[in-house]
């Protein structure tokens, strides 16, 4: 009888015990779920903040890296996708920015922010430039307003409105002493127009405000190099390389930050050559050719060093892959003709030397045009014709003529397309995209300059 009672008592308690156990398991699971979600959010937020900080520092490659990381943890991915669109916009990759904005919009990101970013894309290509598009710099600017003010100044410079761009930058400096962007933008404008002596203290002021502001580091490196402050320039280029190296794959020159990293490595190599550090530089250039197979500047610099060492076979090996892209370039044809002659390939050498001599004759004709133009009123068509000749036969000397033409006719799609081609050959993808977009916009509007 007692045994039955115990059995009955045990069976009557079993459902309650089971329920309490289930409840405990549920509570524990909920705690783990909340903790997991909290950790998930913490990781996303940390990566997103890293991206925002890198963007504010102008390190677009690093910002791109962390926005991509953050997108793996964000539930809807709208914020990180919008961040990637801002990076593409700042980089001048209009098509990519537009695609990412559509994705962010479809994911539910703020329509007002999307519209503002699309407007910014137009501004930096020179579209919609008017006084009422300026931001009042007297108030504390948000990052979005900083982006807009920067795009406005870039748009003015793309259209050749140099003095107005300087004026806007000056007004921004007067009212926003704690931001690096206006100092950097004015310095960049001065440097691009040949006044590196005036640009230097502005770059330095930008870095005094924010030592991590990468565009100012890169700009200062170039300015110091122009001013022949080689050792100081080398240090700044090394700073650029160290800040980008972990985030940029030079195998894809369209990648964010690739053009800045490539330029820093090339300019550092040139400085080292001036300092007599030939052997390590040749090794670095050979590695760079492997990383960036079709870059003109890298191969030409390496071939020039091989020529000093009478390595004709190496010259041909380095130049031949890019010769179809630059068939009329006199520098390449001369190096190749000399190398083929040293190897005893006289027929090929004669063919290349004829192309070199033809190019030289064309450049001599351009020189005559330059001389005749000195006694004539400034003519953008003449300057454009001279620039296009240089782009074909000696492209690295085309820039001053393109700049002169642009100052006289800032709305010419032909001139803007020429500038885009110059930057494409230089390997500066951001500037290439910016000017190509502006040229396309003007051409589509029916404007012919």
Concise account of the structure shown:
By secondary structure, this protein is mainly alpha-helical. It is built from 21 helices and no strands.
Describe the overall structure.
Helices cover 76% and strands 0% of the residues. It is an all-alpha fold and 449 residues long. The protein has a domain at 21-125: Serine Threonine Protein Phosphatase 5, Tetratricopeptide repeat (Alpha Horseshoe). It is globular and about 95 Å long. It starts with a helix and ends in a 5-residue tail after the last helix. 43% of the residues are buried.
Helix content: over 70%
Beginning-to-end CA distance, first to last residue: 111 Å
Strand residue percentage:
under 5%
Q: What name does CATH use for the topology of the domain at 21-125?
A: Serine Threonine Protein Phosphatase 5, Tetratricopeptide repeat
Rounded radius of gyration (Å): 29 Å
Number of helices: 21
Biggest sheet character:
none
For the record, the CATH architecture of the domain at 21-125 stands as Alpha Horseshoe
Taking all residues together, what is the mean pLDDT? 85
The secondary structure category is mainly alpha
Outline type: globular
Q: pLDDT below 50 for ≥5 consecutive residues: which ranges?
A: 4-11, 29-38
**The CATH class of the domain at 21-125:** Mainly Alpha
InterPro entries: TPR-like_helical_dom_sf, TPR_rpt, Ycf3/AcsC/BcsC/TPR_MFPF
Keywords: Membrane, Repeat, TPR repeat, Transmembrane, Transmembrane helix
Protein name: Tetratricopeptide repeat protein
Organism: Novipirellula artificiosorum
């Amino acid at each position: 009888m007692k045994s039955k009672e115990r059995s009955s008592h045990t069976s009557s308690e079993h459902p309650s015990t089971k329920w309490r156990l289930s409840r405990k398991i549920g509570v524990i699971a909920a705690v783990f779920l909340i903790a997991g979600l909290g950790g998930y959010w913490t990781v996303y937020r940390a990566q997103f903040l890293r991206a925002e900080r890198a963007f504010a520092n102008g390190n677009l490659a690093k910002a791109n890296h962390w926005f991509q990381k953050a997108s793996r943890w964000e539930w809807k991915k709208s914020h990180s996708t919008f961040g990637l669109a801002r990076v593409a916009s700042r980089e001048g990759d209009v098509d990519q920015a537009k695609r990412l904005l559509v994705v962010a919009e479809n994911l539910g990101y703020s329509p007002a922010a999307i519209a503002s970013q699309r407007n910014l894309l137009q501004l930096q290509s020179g579209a919609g430039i008017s006084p009422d598009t300026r931001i009042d710099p007297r108030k504390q600017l948000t990052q979005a307003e900083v982006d807009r003010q920067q795009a406005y100044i870039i748009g003015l410079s793309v259209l050749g409105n140099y003095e107005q761009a300087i004026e806007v930058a000056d007004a921004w400096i007067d009212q926003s002493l704690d931001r690096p962007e206006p100092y950097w933008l004015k310095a960049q404008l001065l440097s691009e127009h040949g006044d590196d002596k005036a640009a230097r203290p502005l770059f330095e002021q930008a870095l005094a405000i924010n030592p991590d502001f990468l565009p100012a580091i890169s700009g200062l490196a170039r300015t110091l190099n122009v001013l022949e402050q080689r050792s100081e320039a080398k240090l700044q280029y090394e700073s650029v390389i160290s800040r980008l190296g972990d985030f940029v794959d030079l195998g894809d020159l369209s990648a964010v930050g690739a053009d800045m990293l490539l330029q820093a490595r090339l300019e550092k190599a040139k400085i080292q050559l001036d300092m007599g550090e030939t052997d390590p530089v040749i090794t670095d250039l050979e590695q760079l050719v492997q990383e960036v197979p079709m870059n003109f500047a890298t191969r030409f610099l390496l071939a020039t060093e091989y020529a000093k060492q009478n390595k004709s076979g190496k010259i041909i090996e380095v130049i031949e892959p890019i010769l179809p892209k630059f068939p009329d370039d006199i520098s390449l044809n001369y190096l190749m003709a000399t190398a083929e002659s040293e190897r005893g390939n006289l027929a090929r050498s004669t063919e290349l030397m004829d192309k070199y001599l033809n190019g030289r004759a064309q450049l001599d004709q351009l020189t005559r045009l330059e001389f005749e133009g000195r006694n004539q009123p400034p003519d953008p068509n003449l300057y454009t014709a001279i620039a296009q000749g240089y782009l074909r036969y000696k492209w690295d000397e085309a820039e001053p003529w393109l700049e002169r033409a642009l100052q006289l006719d800032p709305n010419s799609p032909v001139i803007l397309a020429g500038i885009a081609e110059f930057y494409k050959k230089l390997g500066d993808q951001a500037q290439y995209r910016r000017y190509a977009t502006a040229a396309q916009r003007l051409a589509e509007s029916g404007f012919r300059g």
